[in-house]
Amino acid sequence: MGGLPAPEALAGVDEAEVDAGPETRRWQLDAAHHGQRLDKVLARLVPEFSRSHLQTLVVAGEVRLDGAVSLQPSRKLRAGQVLEVSLVPPAEARAFTPEAMALDVVYEDAHLLVIHKPAGLVVHPAAGNWSGTLLNGLLARDPAAAHLPRAGIVHRLDKDTSGLMVVGRTLEAVTALVRDLAARDIHRRYLALAHGDVGRLPFTVEAPVGRDPAVRVRMAVTASGKPARTDVLPVACRDGISAVRCVLHTGRTHQIRVHLSHRGHPLVADAVYGGRPALGLQRQALHAAELELPHPIDRRPLRFEAAPPPDFAAAWALVVPP
To answer: Is the Cβ–Cβ distance between 195 and 265 less than 8 Å?
Structure first.
């Protein structure tokens, strides 16, 4: 019994099989494994994976003993059993895999891309979205993006926000774009539909934004947050819904959504911050319509506009007179 020997010392083990799917490994267990927990033995035999991921594989049915699926990580093993595992990699290990996708490229040169992101597309891999992101699409479109931080992505739009994004294509451009964002030399203007009447006069929300201490998946106006400023320009109001233009002076996570909700005007269909579906919209009513920036290399001024997608455009037309 006792401790487990090093993997290379296990007699008759490490018989790897590779097929079209995940790698499969099989071992004949000996006396050193007798009475040990299944997950503990796997962690020693497959040190390149974490014990928690191996436990996930057990529960998912990827581990077999004598040909039968074993679903209990705590199961005690017996000498002579044949242990087999399909080494499905963790989802995050597949996050930086190129995935071909259609991208709406508004502008392109050797140093940058400007992309019109559709609603529903996640920008960067994270828990729950390890594939199918804009980053995956950028890696497929330009293999050189693999050598750049975050494949050249320097700022984000929320999954359900549509509109313009700038992406660097060279390290020099990425460095300059990050610098310009910090210096607030990149200007972003949004269209939004919010509940309630915001009034007729432009106003500014200047309030720090940080993680909501009560609900960690949300952001909130909080004293411990980072400084944030949003200018709001009312356009029209009809049937209790206001159409507004918003200018970002900072780029905090969910900033416009948080600031308008803080003022009592959550975005239409933004369930996270209290918005209700309306005007046919089932996703938050926010569109990044304009982008202005100096070219990261030659510094010439660039300006781009993107018309909102059909769902947002139809909702906007119901509030704003033609």
So the answer is: yes
Q: Can you tell me the distance from the alpha carbon of 290 to that of 69, in angstroms, rounded to the nearest whole number?
A: 55
Q: How far is CA 160 from CA 30, 81, 218, 282, in A?
A: 54, 50, 15, 10
**Inter-residue contact 58 to 38 (CB < 8 Å):** yes
pLDDT digits (tens, 9 = 90+) for 288-307: 999 999 999 999 999 999 99
Q: Residue holding tokens 């304009």? A: 290
Structure token digits, residue 296: 């990261």
Task: Tell me, yes or no, if 158 is annotated catalytic.
Answer: yes
Residue appearing with tokens 């996050």: 95
How many whole angstroms from its chain centre is CA 312? 22
Candidate list 158, 180, 212, 270, residue with the active-site label: 158
Instruction: Pick the closest to residue 169 from 289, 291, 293, 296 (CA basis).
Output: 296
In the chain, the amino acid numbered 88 is V
Global pTM value: 0.74
